[in-house]
Amino acid sequence: MAQDPELVRELAEPPPVIELPMLSAAPIALAAPIGVGGAAIVYGANVNGIALAVKVLRRGRGNDVVGIERFARELFALSELHHPSVPECWGYGKTNDGRPFAAFTFVQGETLREPMLRGVRLRVREALGLLDDLLELLVLAHQKGILHRDIKPSNIMLETDGHPFLLDFGLAQLLDGPCDAPVARDSGGAEVVPDAANEDDGARVTGDGIAVGTPAYMAPEQARAERAAIGPSTDLFALALTVASAMLGRPLRGTRAGLAEAARPLAPLAFQDVEFPIEVASLFEKALAFQPEDRFRSAEAMQRATRVVGRSLGIYLPLRRHRVASHPAPSADRSSKFTVIVNGNVPDGAWQPRQRLEFSSAPPTKSAEQKARLGWLAAAIFVLAIAALLVDALRG
Q1: How far is Cα of residue 270 from the mean position of the Cα atoms in its chain?
Q2: pLDDT of 134-170, one tens digit each?
């Protein structure tokens, strides 16, 4: 396979230098590259004992409106999501040579795609645990009005203990309001349509009629670019298809699936050659329904169903104790345009997060388990109060 000569030259250059005041008062020289994508290079770094993965836009992408817009989307989404299954962001800015960067906690492990390439199948217990962990993250993301839109095996990193991280929020979309699919525009105001051949995972969307995501794992309405139909169940479809594929040890659609195949109803799950309980198959079949209204209505509803299925099989979720992130995520200034990142590189009319920061004011709903715990707590407090009154009366 021929290598990109520009990329070869860039990788041969000394790594850039960044500043992260949260971790170090001195400039930080990055280590050797640990990953390469179509738009960015990921460098390693170790600052005061903290291992980092630093994502830096490739040379020439600093003036690429679409590339910067995708970078800003990811930073905005991560600034809104403080969760154990999202890599912590320690800061962002520009390198010493002027390229946008963002620094994340380095995750040691492998993606879900790698075991599939080896033909390893995810067992039922592991699959339900993975599903439960990531559904908990999607409950938060969807409450914040954020859709991931590109859930797939290569975007799920697994640590050695099985704890998952959901990566790459570069295609994230905001749910509510008229600007839920931001567009990038050039200096003349014309819409910029990215070249699908330059995207790591296929086509993207900048408006109606252009698909976004990875066809092998996207929902039918996403493949048809039906903006009005894209919602939380779109992410749930992709997550279910990803985990079901990992259980079978192969993509259900095949890695070469195109948009036409993704837009059609999914073939019946091929669980016949694997001894999966019918409860598990039923869970996935509902999540993978062709019509969004036939799927689970929310990530919370799907998580409840997953836990019910788990209990019926003697699997009590969550499998792992929940972690607590070690520091608050850098908050996005709600009147900001991420000027630290773009700093004049995005012309007027390009996506600005401040246009899309008014989320629903409805409070997050509590799960049935949370309500039950609160009910028992209230009852206990009531009983103690009555007991205290009786004691006072007897003493009187």
Answers
A1: 27
A2: 999 999 999 999 999 999 999 999 998 899 999 988 8
- What are 206-229's pLDDT values in tens digits? 344 567 789 999 999 999 999 899
Q: What is d(CA 142, CA 359) in angstroms, rounded to the nearest whole number?
A: 10
Does residue 12 contact residue 37 with C-beta atoms inside 8 Å?
no
Q: How far apart are CA 170 and CA 100, in angstroms?
A: 14
Handedness of CA 4, 9, 15, 20 (dihedral sign): negative
Here the tokens at position 93 are 């800015």
What size, in residues, is the chain?
396
Q: How large is the average pLDDT for residues 164-180?
A: 74
Contact between 195 and 203 (Cβ < 8 Å): no
The answer to whether residues 200 and 172 touch, using CB atoms and an 8 Å cutoff, is no
Mean pLDDT confidence for 94-122: 93
Question: Could you give phi then psi for residue 138, rounded to 5 degrees?
Answer: -65, -30
Cis preceding-peptide flag for 318 (omega within 30 of 0):
yes
Nearest to 145 by CA among 368, 355, 369, 370: 355
SS3 119: coil
Q: Name, in order, each residue with C-beta under 8 angstroms of 393's C-beta and a sequence gap of 6 or more.
A: none
- Within a 10 A sphere around the Cβ of 210, how many other Cβ atoms? 15
Sequence-distant (6+) residues with CB within 8 A of 189 are 348, 349
